[in-house]
Amino acid sequence: MGDFFRSSRITSPPHSLQSSLQRTIDRYKVYTKDNVNDKTVQQDIQQQVKADTVGLAKQLEALDESRRKILGENLEGCSVEELRGLEIKLEKSLHNIRRKKTELLEKQISKLKENERNLLKDNEDLHEKVQHRNVEAAMAAANNMAPAWLPRDMPAPSSSNADIDMETELYIGLPGTERSTG
User: Is the CA virtual torsion 11, 15, 21, 25 positive or negative?
Assistant: First the structure.
């Protein structure tokens, strides 16, 4: 039988086949080693996730219990000290809420006062402008000319129209309601 191998020229696997086979074996070793490590890592991660979940569930339960106590529910099992502690926490919270509310209201009042000042200034400017135009109109009427601010196609106000007094009345109330004349 040894002659068969010698005669067919198969003495040992070629070098390229050996190196390919060795690479395949090496890859297999790395793969199995990585999978064993991956399984260990995965198990560690799963255990950590379970522990975190249990811890978070306990925290959630404690927060829910605290919330119920703050809302005044389930106070039967509380001692006088616990109730006093809750009372102090609520007073501090209420103080902070009132402080923040006051701060917001003060900012709002400040903005409203600024708006008021701006509106008063605008009103004053408009009042001066109207007075100036009235003076112009009166002077133009005296000279029988149209004031500069009137469009050119509008007739100049006559002196008889300039002296007309107009009576206006302001009524404050809901539409459709009768006003009493007293």
Answer: positive
Q: Which residue in this structure is represented by tokens 């005669």?
A: 7
Q: Which residues contact 66 (CB under 8 A, 6 or more apart)?
A: none
What is the amino acid identity at position 155?
A: P
Number of helices (H), then strands (E), in the chain: 4, 0
In this predicted model, what pLDDT tens digit does every residue of 74-123 receive, in sequence order?
Answer: 899 899 999 999 999 999 999 999 999 999 999 999 999 999 999 999 99
Cα–Cα distances in angstroms (integers) from residue 127 to residues 13, 19, 117, 130, 136, in the given order: 111, 102, 15, 5, 14
Q: Which residues contact 83 (CB under 8 A, 6 or more apart)?
A: 75
Rounded (5°) CA angle 65-67-68:
65
Model pTM score = 0.45
What is the DSSP code string of 48-95? HHHHHHHHHHHHHHHHHHHHHHHTT-S-TT--HHHHHHHHHHHHHHHH
